[in-house]
Design brief:
alpha/beta; homodimer; Rossmann fold; about 325 residues
Chain lengths: ~325, ~325
């Protein structure tokens, strides 16, 4: 295992300490590293709280700030945060208007966020499940929540910042999730620090179609394809799943898994954009970068969100977080 | 070689096409992919032009926009751009106030930018050479220009946006370069697409101290060390080179080389910050991310820039590029 670390037991806390020190203008750490919270709360605003296993940075801590999340609870690497983390976050950031949990669909996350929601007052939840690759998976019943979660957090975050009430935010989050599809491919495995070796074996000329963000198996293992062929298959899976809805204005988000440089991500974006635009989708908004990662995995995912005017305006609204910032 | 590509001959142009399409609100491509230019020029402003071999993205194209570069000339991967690229860029973005070239100190880059400067009117140059690792290297006489180049481009770019004249911008750029030191380490090699195999061999438990951003040898090959030990050695090299000046307010920039995820970069930032602060440096500004990369190399560099009030204010000034944006 080749990583920058001092001890596998302290990877997460040291990284969070560095993260909080580097972005102390935007956010602060909760006690015992239970959560990352927005530094300045906005009284009367519904609090958005997300979280999940670590190793997907900048998701979710890097998305805490004005116009996006109020708090994020980091679990150990690829391990759900515990309900007491969510409860501590609720206590820290709920200013009286209630909380919305945004939860990726993994059994541990759903169970623990559910438990925290039941122990709190005025909490609703949005479960994201944008990954079209497989139905049910290593840690999931149904579909996995992956990079599309960022899109939900951005759009719902903007609406919360503008004063939308809790039930409407929940409905909006469900609507964005429903308009969003993703699929990923891996060229290499990730390596969990505590394991010390790759999560899965993969040959020098192989790739995994439909990989999950913890290295879960996808649809199939295959020989390494050209960028265009990969994009063709991934875009077809996304468009096929959307069916007749796969047309009109959309956000195209090409997401790196951590070990793939931006030069390759923009090349994949170029392929995917051409493919979608040939089929009647108009790419009106774009995001390219490593935002929902799988530690050091080489690979990427493609996410398409069908946009209406309200969603587009909310995507464009000001955001100031460690990882996403525009308009302020 | 495991990369997202269609053909090694078209990696660069396809990636640039995707980049320009994703950021068409900020920038545009010149004919024949000769340069990336700011979409809206500001008449009367000195034009800042940089460039160099590709493979270091987002440097330099990702730094084109308001408050930073007016144009960037991308060479082939790890290959200097040609003088006609710089001449075309000058022609496209010089609005009459002259041009400043910001050039990393590599022999090919220096020669080609020199040639273009001699063939133009009203061009001055800043050469960056912030890498303390080695004196002279594979492609360099003197010291290499590395991640500190971004700091020069940001600070000089802000001053140009505010109307500073060409000779003062040149002096400011030299001053920022003189206040900046960097050193990098590699855990793996990069792989140049046209070569198809790693640039250098490195053992499973080895690392390279002082590596260059093209995989050039550094100070020595050693067994993989802890993050703290790596940071200690890199920070000591930087502080030792600055000598008595290594104190007071500073920008700490931890830069990933392309294959290292942000979790590890923040952990390295945490180590480096503690080390510098123990020795009298006060970290007042921070940047953590993969900005000056070496394709898919796993590794990182640490850059320290000693800040005065003018430099700090210019660092904070609004910037709107693909890779760096704040204040607008």
């Amino acid at each position: 295992m080749k990583k920058f670390l001092n001890s596998v037991d302290t990877v997460l806390t040291e990284s969070l300490d560095g993260f909080a020190a580097a972005h102390s203008d935007i956010l602060a750490l909760g006690d015992e590293h239970k959560f990352v919270r927005r530094r300045e709360l906005k009284p009367g605003k519904v609090a958005l709280i997300s979280g999940g296993g670590s190793g997907h940075e900048p998701l979710h801590g890097g998305l805490v700030g004005h116009g996006m999340l109020d708090a994020a609870c980091p679990g150990q690497v690829f391990t759900s945060p515990t309900p007491d983390q969510m409860l501590a976050a609720v206590q820290a950031v709920d200013t009286g208007a209630g909380c919305l949990f945004i939860v990726k669909n993994y059994e541990g996350d759903v169970m623990n966020f559910d438990m925290a929601a039941e122990m709190s007052e005025g909490v609703l939840q949005v479960i994201t499940n944008d990954d079209v690759a497989v139905e049910n998976s290593s840690y999931t019943t149904g579909r996995r929540g992956v990079a599309g979660t960022l899109v939900v957090e951005k759009i719902v975050g903007a609406a919360a910042e503008q004063g939308m009430a809790l039930p409407e935010l929940k409905a909006l989050g469900d609507r964005v999730n429903d308009a969003t599809r993703s699929m990923g491919v891996a060229l290499t495995s990730c390596t969990v620090p505590a394991a010390g070796r790759p999560t899965f074996e993969i040959g020098d000329n192989e790739m995994e179609f439909g990989v999950g963000i913890h290295g879960e198996p996808g649809r199939r293992r295959d020989a390494l394809k050209s960028a265009d062929a990969i994009a063709q298959e991934v875009c077809a899976a996304i468009a096929g799943d959307l069916g007749d809805r796969a047309k009109g204005p959309a956000l195209l988000f090409v997401n790196g898994f951590g070990g793939t440089p931006s030069m390759e991500l923009y090349l994949m974006y170029n392929s995917a954009r051409k493919i979608f635009e040939k089929s009647g989708v108009t790419v009106v908004r774009s995001l390219v970068g490593s935002y929902v990662t799988s530690l050091d995995m080489a690979g990427c995912s493609i996410t398409l969100t069908l946009l209406d005017d309200e969603m587009t305006a909310l995507w464009d609204a000001p955001v100031l977080t460690a990882a996403l910032r525009w308009g302020m």
